[in-house]
Amino acid sequence: MRIQFIAALGAASLAAAAGLVMPTSATGASVDTQHLVASHSPENAGQWMSYGRDYSEQRYSPLKQITADNVSQLGLAWYADLAERGGSYETTPVVVDGRIYVTAPWSKVYAFDAKTGKPLWKYDPKVPGEWAVNLCCGIVNRGVAVWKDKVIWGTLDGRLIAVNAKTGKKVWEVQATDRTKMQSITGAPRIADGRIFIGEAGSEFHQRGYLAAYDAENGKELWRWWAVPGDPSKPFEQPELEWAAKTWHGEWWKTGGGGTPWDAITYDPVTDLVFVGTGNGAPWPAEIRSPGGGDNLFTSSIVALEAKTGKYRWHYQATPQDSFDFDNTQQLVTADLVIDGEKKHVVMQAPKNGVFYVLEAATGKVLKAHLYVPTANWLTGFDANYRPILNPEANYGKIGKGFHVVPSAGGAHSWHPMAFNPNTGLMYIPTNYSSFPLVAEAGAKMGNQLLSINVAKRPQDPPPKLEGAGSYLLAWDPVNMKEVWKQPQGTSRSGVMTTAGNLVFQGSPPHSFNAYRADTGERVWTTDTQANIVGGSASYMVDGVQYIAVVAAGQAGFGGGGYWAPNYARLLVYKLGGKAELPPAVPYTPPPLNPPPEFGDEQLIVRGQKKYNEHCATCHGNDGRVSSIFPDLRYAGPLHSAEAFKAIVIDGALQQNGMVSFRKVLTPEDAEAIRAYVVRLAHQAKNAPPGPFGPGRGPGAAAPAPAPGAATPPASPSAPHQ
Ligand code: CA
Fold this sequence. Notes:
The protein is of the alpha+beta class. The longest helix has 20 residues, at 668-687. Calcium ion (CA) binds at residues 203-204, 279-280, 325, 327.
């Protein structure tokens, strides 16, 4: 037996060395720990078994039928229209045993035959429409987990659902969050040894973050790890929370504290640890959240837990005393790197705060930390232990004059997945370099995150002038901590995937999908997808043919895909010599804007903007622009009537259509202020120069005017310690 095993292993290694990939993914390799560990073996090379492909989260496919030299022949193999149209598709396809699974808005899941595109099943968990008020950042889901014969995912209303992978029939369902609270699940679960790991989202609504493990067979909770301490007068759930509580002041437990681990979860079979990235503290300004200072552990940190028990092993806090929404929830990638002549098993992260980290996986020791954007102004450098030295000027909660933070609260890199190619040794990061205005409001209520940040006010100082601002795809050398190449990406970011064919794939706004040489960054292929891509792509093989899969969807207000085809969502699958064609794109012409005359004084407009951003923006988009599957209010007829507007917003006149009453959180006067603000936005859009897809619809058409005055470059650390 032993000899046979070694012989089999030898054959696999030989095939890999010779560049031969002989997967037969349609034959039933399935997914368990063994397959996920051996994800590059011939049996598994053709699968994309988990959100980040395998345990490493590298998003590197060992397939090399499609190469930088022949990718120009890549064409559409098949496509499938997804019934849940529009909205934001943050999903990465997962492909196992010849079936491809994608998630859609409202936590719906679709399964297709990966070779032919034939629909196999669809599951609608029937998330109630009013759950949208509990979401900070869109009606999104990033992906499923597959474990043996089950497909498992989380829903916006906090359930974990397991269905049979072949039939889509429900096997079990559990409530993984507290349904009475503003908690949700948007990330993809990860599974190791039959344990499902998932955390909740909701820091923006002051939730107390936790990661929990569930039994893949029945959904039973096995352990739960709390990211921040609760009421210190009660026993701490975990011993480390006792000393973590000493890093908090005030009565943080009454509002929750934050730290929700809403995306990054990595199981590492080498150390048997689970690495988790925790979210920002809540409310945002540390001064309000924890008066008197303190680091507020374990917000904005990387934490290592024992996979079997959930016991704390180590942590590194990337942003102590975070006041900038610097979630540390960006993907955690494991790899073996040679650093200073020594092979190290590491975990890498490029979080929102703009610093690239390389940590020793077993101990959490920081081996490298360096800015991966040109500048950042929330820190001035690092101390000898890689603790960031905070810029005192950035403490806007104390100073009260506001601050333009660099990178922005949206992150130098956020959930859009990055990819690591072990052949080039490079990390490919969907990067954004910009600033974000923050002003804390004196006497802000603690009950709602947004009340502590005054979105209607601008900092006293003008925004910093940033050379090279915008979004781009960055190829980053994690050993030498330096940029190798970059490609501009316009206004939005999208997930990245890399392959053994020396290729990097990424969508570009407003409606293209591109391939670059992994070593040089040269663009070697592009195709028109008719809509925007934000999620990650996957590569797989069925019957000896390599495919590339990605979802493109209408996404108005972000990069323009939605202006082109606002009600469009498709799974697109490519192969060499693919000849399928999309139906012709239908250019979208919005109806003419016909707002009533502007009314109200500045005070009313500012109040309207504040209330709009607190209660309306999640569904109807920032600054009135539609961001999802909800109406663009600037075009709404009821803007012409105070009575009609109030009847909808306060009295719930459109309840049947999913527009719930906001009586609990808004007064009739608030509704009128919102109407005045949206009318102002409609006039701004009407008077804006026509964009490529219609008048007043282009990105920025309704954006607030920037603060006047000459811009000055921010104080920034040009080269922190490596
Ligand atoms: Ca956040």
